[in-house]
UniProtKB/TrEMBL annotation:
<dbReference type="InterPro" id="IPR050278">
    <property type="entry name" value="Serine_Prot_S9B/DPPIV"/>
</dbReference>
<dbReference type="InterPro" id="IPR029058">
    <property type="entry name" value="AB_hydrolase_fold"/>
</dbReference>
<feature type="region of interest" description="Disordered">
    <location>
        <begin position="66"/>
        <end position="85"/>
    </location>
</feature>
<dbReference type="InterPro" id="IPR001375">
    <property type="entry name" value="Peptidase_S9_cat"/>
</dbReference>
<dbReference type="Pfam" id="PF00326">
    <property type="entry name" value="Peptidase_S9"/>
</dbReference>
<feature type="domain" description="Dipeptidylpeptidase IV N-terminal">
    <location>
        <begin position="107"/>
        <end position="373"/>
    </location>
</feature>
<protein>
    <submittedName>
        <fullName>Prolyl oligopeptidase family serine peptidase</fullName>
    </submittedName>
</protein>
<feature type="domain" description="Peptidase S9 prolyl oligopeptidase catalytic">
    <location>
        <begin position="487"/>
        <end position="687"/>
    </location>
</feature>
<feature type="compositionally biased region" description="Basic and acidic residues">
    <location>
        <begin position="75"/>
        <end position="85"/>
    </location>
</feature>
<dbReference type="Pfam" id="PF00930">
    <property type="entry name" value="DPPIV_N"/>
</dbReference>
<dbReference type="InterPro" id="IPR002469">
    <property type="entry name" value="Peptidase_S9B_N"/>
</dbReference>
Length: 689
């Protein structure tokens, strides 16, 4: 390998460059559009087409040929990419008409439209930098957001009109507010009508939200950047909905709940889904676009919290509602009023509804995410081998992506109705690691656990220092049957560690009860489960793990868990690296935090229990805190306040501030050296340098 793993890991954006993604299948199944960079180290994303009849790929859009400088992005687009965790540049998102004949995208703030048949691309004149352009279903118009207002461009005449203009600096039309994008996976704020003559538009006003300031101490000549951040217990943005016609008409769509989780507008209904502030109620409404009146179709309630599932609501050809909800101890797919999946199969999300067929992802074994279909009569597995799958379905043509422990990277295949398959090659770099990953269950609760040994380690030959490498919190898993989950863990193992990865209570894949075990306490269950699994693994490998030298590292929630571990259980953990940790949940956002801990004014003791500050005086193990000073998700105040509490208690620790770095740490040199610095710190702290 010509480059070290840390350097290659950074250059390839964690080996995501060159991987096909963002698939759109035409209704007739004749074309598949997708995004992909031209190599595994090329950060510029291009738009491609696959002809399913000839099996020929065609490069539709190469941003370099359009002479657009990628660095020139409007602030709103940078924020959107931070929310979506987008690591590449170029054409990172696009939208098409219903026939997939016209594609629109934003590039360096400009608005571009491509004719799919000819590949001709033209830039449209706009009054400002463009965010989230979307072609109308009939292909006649492109809507987009600029300057906080929603505009529509007529592709035939070139006329550009503002349909909604913000009344104040705090108002936007057509953009998802921070909470929707960060915590509900809703990244859009407007939806075209099926006929292309109107749009459902979100109006968001951030005036009620408190203002925080993200400073750059390394550049004192630059003013701090103001940011509206709704921390737990404070006001959210005010959101409203309007049906806005191309003729300028505007009809209000009132709703009472705090959150708009999603909206859809198909041939059967204009639907909106709203959620109460306490997140114990989720309501689905059908909206009359002519009057704005709403009819309640379904309400789901839960004493802990309701789940927001992507991909629903949807409709079969006959109008039957497609929905996902917790039922009989599982997360189940509903068609109409009937659950069509067993409670033992945990539905993750719905990917597509193609006429009378629903394509969705679900887990029986929590370490696997399989593809399934419901065709109106029967439930069928699409994938059968162990792994992590995703896909798309339209016009009877499917796209299947597969990751597994047996093969490197992501495999992408187009499946035709005849059963014929067409591969879409990945151009990603090979990590060059010899993975030694053992999946299993450990501890009293039989927690999903991965144990990663060095490739050079002979079982039973010596006891290795142990490194726990968790995320450990809600919404995310680390223990999955896919090589990509363990690349960094394997590299740490090669440095002389036995690496243990555990998905404890609160993580998805094992059903609602397992996830809801963290209600009112984000600290105790997750930490107990890491220790429980560690002890279980030590019993399984008694001659390979040295429990007198145990470290833990993590980022975001994993960073919180790492700091928590050395503060509360120094008898088990002997060193920790905490990256971008949440240290006091009062400083984190409303939707995420209140889902698990409630209102801080009503339950202050719950927040105190999950905070790290009261434990500062207990620290007697090496702790490295790392934080990007430009982080607008987990702001640097988390680390700085914990450091202050540790200093006040006279407890030595190390802080590594990263100037100009956000929550994602995308900068190549920073990402590379972070891995190297962590290894050096851990080895010295454990006495194994």
């Amino acid at each position: 390998m010509s480059e070290s793993f840390p350097r290659l890991h950074a250059r390839t954006r964690r080996f995501t460059l060159g991987v096909p993604r963002g698939f759109t299948i035409s209704p007739d199944g004749a074309r598949v559009l997708f995004l992909r960079t031209q190599s595994g180290t090329d950060p510029v994303t291009c738009l491609w087409e696959l002809d399913t009849a000839t099996h020929v790929e065609r490069l539709l859009v190469d941003p370099r040929a359009l002479d657009a400088e990628e660095e020139d992005l409007p602030p709103e687009e940078r924020a959107r990419r931070e929310r979506t965790r987008e690591q590449a540049g170029g054409v990172v998102a696009y939208a098409t008409d219903s026939a997939v004949t016209t594609a629109a995208f934003a590039l360096s703030g400009g608005l571009y439209v491509t004719d799919v048949a000819t590949g001709a691309t033209r830039r449209l004149e706009t009054p400002g930098a463009v965010i989230d352009p979307r072609v109308s279903p009939d292909g006649r118009h492109v809507a987009y957001v600029t300057g906080g207002g929603l505009h529509v461009h007529d592709l035939a005449t070139g006329e550009d009109r503002a349909l909604a203009v913000p009344e104040a600096d705090t108002v936007t039309y057509g953009l998802a507010e921070f909470i929707a994008a960060e915590e509900m996976d809703r990244f859009r704020g407007y939806w075209w009508s099926p006929g292309g003559d109107a749009l459902l538009v979100e109006r968001a006003d951030e005036a009620p939200v408190q203002t925080w300031y993200i400073a750059d101490p390394a550049n004192p000549d630059r003013p701090a950047v103001p940011q509206r951040y709704p921390s737990a217990g404070t006001a959210n943005a005010s959101t409203e909905l309007y049906v806005i016609g191309l003729d300028g008409s505007r009809i209000a769509v009132p709703f009472e709940d705090e959150y708009l989780t999603t909206a859809t507008w198909d041939a059967h209904a204009l639907s909106i889904v709203t959620m109460s502030r306490d997140q114990k109620s989720l309501r689905l409404f059908a909206v009359d676009p002519a009057t704005g009146a709403s009819t309640l179709l379904r309400e789901d309630t839960d004493e802990a919290w309701v789940d927001v599932v992507t991909g629903v609501p949807g409709h079969l050809d006959d109008g039957s509602l497609v929905w996902v909800a917790a039922d009989e101890g599982g997360r189940r797919l509903f068609v109409g009023d009937r659950a069509v999946t067993p409670p033992t199969l945990q539905v993750r999300d719905v990917l597509d509804v193609d006429r009378d067929t629903v394509l969705f992802r679900a887990s029986g074994d929590p370490t696997e995410i399989q593809l399934w279909t419901w065709d109106g009569h029967s439930l069928m597995p699409v994938s059968t081998a162990s792994g992590v799958y995703s896909g798309r379905l339209s016009g009877g043509v499917g796209v299947l992506t597969e990751q597994s422990l047996e093969n490197e990277g992501v495999s992408t295949t187009v499946v035709l109705p005849s059963g014929m398959t067409i591969p879409i090659p990945s151009l990603a770099e090979r990590p060059g690691l010899d993975l030694r990953v053992h999946l299993g269950r450990a501890g009293a609760r039989e927690l999903s656990t991965a144990v990663v040994f060095p490739s050079w380690h002979e079982p039973g030959s010596r006891k290795l220092p142990v490194l726990l490498d968790p995320y450990g919190g809600p919404h995310a898993q680390r223990v999955l049957a896919a090589q990509s989950m363990y690349l960094t863990s394997q590299w740490f193992a090669e440095q002389g560690f036995a690496v243990v990865v555990v998905d404890g209570r609160g993580t998805p894949g094992r059903g609602p009860a397992f996830e809801r075990a963290v209600l009112n306490d984000l600290a105790t269950p997750v930490l107990d489960d890491q220790i429980d699994a560690l002890q279980g693994v030590a019993q399984q490998y008694p001659d390979d793990l040295d429990l007198s030298k145990v470290a833990i590292r993590g980022w975001s929630f994993g960073g919180y868990l790492s700091a928590l571990a050395v503060l509360r259980r120094p008898d088990v953990f002997h060193a920790a690296v905490a990256g971008a940790p949440v240290t006091d949940w009062r400083l984190y956002d409303t939707c995420y935090t209140e889902r698990y801990l409630g209102d801080p004014a009503a339950q202050p003791e719950v927040y105190d229990q999950s905070s790290l500050f009261a434990d500062a005086a207990k620290l007697d193990r090496p702790l490295l805190l790392i934080h990007g000073l430009a982080d607008d998700n987990v702001v640097a105040a988390h680390t700085l306040r914990l450091s202050s509490a540790l200093l006040s208690a006279g407890r030595p620790h190390t802080v590594l501030p990263l100037s100009g770095v956000t929550h994602m740490t995308p900068q190549e040199v920073v990402a590379e050296n972070l891995l190297l610095l962590q290894v050096d710190f851990l080895k010295k702290s454990l006495g194994t340098a």
